[in-house]
Design a protein that fits this description.
The chain is α+β, with helices and mostly antiparallel strands. It is built from three helices and six strands; from the N terminus they run E-H-E-H-E-E-E-E-H. 25% of the residues are buried.
């Protein structure tokens, strides 16, 4: 089964272009169509609240946030910070985490 992949972004976050390119590369590496990503721009605090948007960039696979925020983390127009597998902080998700999540979702279907 092909997973549903969403990419949510806010124009105030400078890393969204790189994050989308890395997501599409991970999809290609996983044998998935990189153009199948549903790209959603979040442009207002109201849209952020309605979407449960924890910041830009956000990657959701089959409705699940790749790096689920804590319950007390507010939603809104902000930039996200991710922790890479080697412990460094990054403005984009770890590509290995993206690939693993895509493969798990593909196998689950």
């Amino acid at each position: 089964m092909t997973p549903r992949v969403e990419f949510l972004w806010w124009e105030g976050c400078p890393s969204h272009g790189r994050a989308l390119a890395e997501l599409r590369e991970a999809m290609r590496d996983s044998g998935l169509d990189p153009e199948a990503v549903e790209v959603r721009h979040i442009g207002s605090e109201e849209e952020a609240a309605a979407a449960g948007f924890a910041g830009s960039p956000t990657v959701r696979i089959d409705g699940q946030d790749l790096s689920a925020p804590s319950d007390d983390e507010p939603v809104g127009l902000t930039c996200r910070i991710y922790r890479l597998r080697d412990g460094r902080v990054s403005p984009t998700p770890d590509p290995a985490d993206v690939r693993d999540a895509l493969m798990a979702a593909t196998k689950a279907g």
